[in-house]
Write a structure and sequence with these properties.
Chain lengths: 453, 453
C-alpha cells in the first residue's frame, strides 16, 4: 500500500499490528519513537473501551462515549498508518497478512484481535442469548431490555407478562455482575412511573453461574459482599446452576436438586469467551495449536514458539505467568503486553535483549451499582462507596479522550443525581422496529393482543 | 388496553395521538390539565429533535443527544399513556386506530406522523442516495461519509479516488446547506492529518438544486451570504441543475448547457419530502384526497372536512395560511398546531369555541458552519457570528432534556476549540462492516486493490 511505502525510505522494519484494542493500540503508541514503520489493521474504525460496554447496554452511555476513532488517536504519530480492513488470515512463509482485498507484507507481526463470547458448543444460543463484546451487541441488548418492558406493558396474560419481566444473565463474573446491577437500577429507579400497566421494579433479574459464588476469581469476602449488594438490589443469584437449554421463552437450569425451567424472554450471555478465529488461522500456519479457549500458547517474550518475529497479545494469548497461573483476559494484561512488545522491538533494533514479560497486577474491580463496588488492589480489599469511587476514578482516567471523560462524567453525575439515563433508545433495522413488540429477534412470534374497548 | 381503561373512570373522552414528533408531543403536554385520557402512539420510543440530525450524520453528536424517551418526558403526566406500536391504518366509521396487533378506540383522533423524503417517483434512488429523517438514516449517512474517506485512502487509481472524495448533496434547502457545511468542516479540519495517502481537504462537496439559489425560501440577501459562506468552505453550488439519474458511481445532472456526469460514490438526498402514508390511509377513510406531497388539506381548526373530531398536524397537513401561502414543514408550525388543538379540545369540553389557527412565525434560521449562519427574525435579517449565536441558543433551549442540553453544549464547545468530533463511528450490520471498503451499501462491488510490496 502506498501510505506504508511512502515512509519506507526512512525506516526499513515494518511492524504490522492486527487489532486496535488495548494491546494493539498501546503497542502502536509505545512505538512512537522507535524507527520502524507501523501499520495498524482493524476492521473497526475505533478503539472500544469494553469495560464500560455494559453501560451502553443499559442506556447510561452512548456508544461514542466509549469508542474513539483510531485515526484520531494516532494522527500525530507519523510512523503509523491505520488500515480499516478485515484480516482474513496469514501467509507466514510469505510474511503476509491476508485481507479481504489484497494483503500486507510484514517484517514483524503482532496479532491482538481479542476474543468473542463462547457458547460452549451451543452456537444456536447466540441469537437467543446475545453476549456483550461490540457496540452492536450493546445496542442490541439495550433494544431487547427496553422492548421487554414495552411488551410487558401491553401483555394481558400475567404469566406471559412475568416472562417479559424476567431477565436471566448467564455468568456471574464481572460482566454478569455489572450488567445485573445496572439492569436492576434501570428497572427499579430509572423506569419508575414511566409505565401505566406494569411496575418495572417487579422485574426479576437472575444471575446463573455454574460455580459456587459470583466473582469467583475475586477473594471470597468480596464475592460475599457482591452477592449481598446484588440481593439488596433485588437480583437473584443462582450459583451451582448449569444452563442446559435456551428457548425463546425459557431457560433450563440443572441444579443439585434437579432440572428447572425459568420462563423468560430475555437471556443475556456473560459466561465464556473464546479467542478470535485468527488464533486458529495463525496456529495452522505456525505448526502450533490453540488451547480449549482458542488461544495461542506464547513464549515468555510474547512470541510464538519458533517464530521470534510473530507476537500474540491479550485475549488471544495463553500465557502461564511465573507464578504458574494463566493471566486473565483483562485490559491491564493486554496493555502491559503491548508495551512489552514495543520495548522488545526497540531493544532488538539496538541489539539489546529484553527480560521475560512480567505482569504487574494493578488489581481488579467490579461495580455493582450506585455507591457499590468491590476492588482488590495489592493486598487490600475495598468495598462499598470507597471501592466505587476508585472504580469511577480509574475508569474515567482510562478513557482515551478528554472529551469523552467529560461527557461520561456529566452523564454519571446526572445519573447519580436523578437516576435518569439519557441513552435509552430502541434502535435497529426496520425489520426489528416495524413490529416493535415482535419476538423476531427473540426467535419466534409474540402473543400480544392489544385490544381496547 | 388496560392502562387506558384504568383512567377511564375519571375522564370519558379519549384522545389518541399518532406520532410523538413536535406536533404530537406538544399536544400531549398541553393537555396535561385537561380532563381527557390521552394515548400517544409511536413506533419509536423517543422524541427526535430532527433539526440537529445532520450533526449526528457528520459525527458531531451522538443519537441519544437529540433523542429523548417519550415515556421519560411524559412520566409525570398521569392522563397520558404511551404505546409503542406501529399504526397501520384507521377505521374511521368504527372510531378505531389500527395497529399491527389489535387496535385502539378513540373519541378524538390527532394524526401527526410526519414525513419521509421523496424521490419524485424515483424510489430506486433511495438506496443510492439516503435521506436524513431518522436516527438510522443519520448513522447510515455517517457510515457512508466516513467509509468514503477510508476507501479513498486505499484506492490507487486517481479517478476512482476522486470519486470517493466527491460528495453530492441533492437539495439546497436548510438540510442540504447544513449537511454540506458540516461535511466541509469535517473534511477540511476534523480529519486533518488522520490519513497518510489522501488529504481529506481535497474532498469536493457539491450542492445540486433545481432552483436558482440555495435557501430559496429565505430572503435573497441571505441566500447570497449563504452561498458565499459555503464557497469559502470549499463547497460547490450547482443551482439550476436537475438530477436525472443516480448510479452507484455517478450522478447525472441536466443544466441549461446540457447533461453532465459527476463521478461520485456518495450522494445524499436533501431534496423533497412526502407525508407519511398514513395521510393517504386517512384520506381513503374520510373521503378526502392528499395533495402532491401526500399531505391532507385541513380546515382552519386543523380538523378534516366533515370530521370535527379528527385532526391532522405538522408535516402531514397542508394548511393554507390566512396570507394564502402554505405553511412550511418546520418544527414551529407543528408545535403551534399541537398547542392549538390542545386548546381547541379543552375549549370544546367547556362548550367554548376556538378562533381559527394563526401561525405566529418565529422566523427561520440555518447554520452553515462555525460562526456562520443566517436567520430571519421578523423583519430583521441576521448573518455571520450573531446569527450563529442565535442559532446555537435557540437550538440548545429547544432540546427537551436539560441533560442533553449540557451534553450538546460540551460537544459544541469542544468541537469549537479543537475541531474534533467525538461521534465518528462506523457502525452497522455485520454485512456492511465485514468488508468495510465494500460498496455493498453503495450498490455494487468495489475495485479496491490493496497490495503492498
Amino acid at each position: 500500500m502506498k501510505g506504508v511505502n511512502q515512509t519506507r525510505s526512512s525506516a526499513s522494519q515494518h511492524v504490522v499490528i492486527v487489532g486496535g484494542g488495548f494491546g494493539g493500540l498501546h503497542l502502536a503508541r509505545s512505538l512512537s519513537k522507535t524507527p520502524v514503520r507501523v501499520t495498524l489493521v482493524d476492521r473497526r474504525n475505533f478503539h472500544l473501551f469494553q469495560p464500560l460496554l455494559y453501560q451502553v447496554a443499559t442506556g447510561g452511555l452512548s456508544p461514542a462515549n466509549i469508542a474513539t476513532p483510531l485515526r484520531g488517536i494516532l494522527r500525530g504519530q507519523k510512523n503509523v498508518s491505520v488500515v480499516l480492513e478485515e484480516v482474513t488470515g496469514f501467509d507466514v512463509a510469505g510474511s503476509r497478512v491476508l485481507l479481504n482485498d489484497g494483503h500486507i507484507d510484514f517484517d514483524t507481526l503482532v496479532v491482538a484481535a481479542g476474543a468473542r463470547h463462547s457458547y460452549f458448543g451451543h452456537d444456536e444460543w447466540e441469537t437467543l442469548a446475545p453476549g456483550l463484546k461490540t457496540i452492536e451487541d450493546a445496542t442490541e441488548i439495550r433494544r431487547r431490555i427496553l422492548m421487554a418492558f414495552e411488551a410487558a406493558e401491553v401483555e394481558e396474560n400475567s404469566d406471559k407478562r412475568a416472562a417479559w419481566l424476567t431477565f436471566v444473565i448467564v455468568g456471574g463474573g464481572p460482566t454478569g455482575v455489572e450488567l445485573a446491577g445496572s439492569l436492576a437500577e434501570l428497572a427499579g429507579h430509572t423506569l419508575k412511573r414511566e409505565f401505566r400497566n406494569i411496575n418495572p421494579a417487579d422485574a426479576r433479574i437472575i444471575i446463573v453461574d455454574a460455580v459456587d459464588r459470583v466473582l469467583h476469581v475475586y477473594p471470597e469476602d468480596l464475592s460475599k459482599v457482591t452477592a449481598e449488594s446484588l440481593n439488596s438490589l433485588g437480583v437473584t443469584i443462582r450459583t451451582g446452576s448449569i444452563v442446559t437449554d435456551i428457548q425463546p421463552d425459557s431457560v433450563f437450569l440443572k441444579t443439585a436438586s434437579g432440572t428447572e425451567k425459568v420462563a423468560t424472554r430475555t437471556v443475556l450471555w456473560a459466561a465464556g469467551v473464546q479467542a478470535s478465529p485468527l488464533a486458529a488461522a495463525l496456529a495452522e500456519q505456525t505448526g502450533g495449536a490453540t488451547d480449549r479457549a482458542g488461544r495461542l500458547p506464547i513464549q515468555p517474550d510474547m512470541s510464538l514458539p519458533g517464530h521470534p518475529d510473530i507476537f500474540v497479545l491479550g485475549d488471544m494469548a495463553s500465557y502461564a505467568h511465573h507464578d504458574g497461573k494463566p493471566l486473565p483476559g483483562v485490559a491491564p494484561v493486554a496493555i502491559q503486553q503491548g508495551r512489552y512488545v514495543a520495548r522488545l522491538i526497540t531493544n532488538r533494533l539496538c541489539g539489546r535483549s529484553t527480560p521475560s514479560f512480567r505482569y504487574q497486577n494493578p488489581g481488579m474491580m467490579a461495580t455493582i451499582g450506585r455507591s457499590s463496588a468491590v476492588a482488590v488492589l495489592g493486598r487490600h480489599h475495598f468495598r462499598g462507596f470507597i471501592a466505587w469511587l476508585i472504580w469511577l476514578f480509574v475508569h474515567l482516567l482510562q478513557l482515551v479522550q478528554f472529551q469523552n471523560r467529560l461527557l461520561v462524567l456529566v452523564q454519571w453525575a446526572w445519573g447519580y443525581l436523578t437516576w435518569n439515563r439519557s441513552a435509552r433508545l430502541i434502535t435497529g433495522s426496520a425489520q426489528a422496529l416495524s413490529n416493535p413488540a415482535s419476538a423476531e429477534n427473540f426467535g419466534h412470534s409474540p402473543d400480544l393482543e392489544i385490544n381496547q374497548k
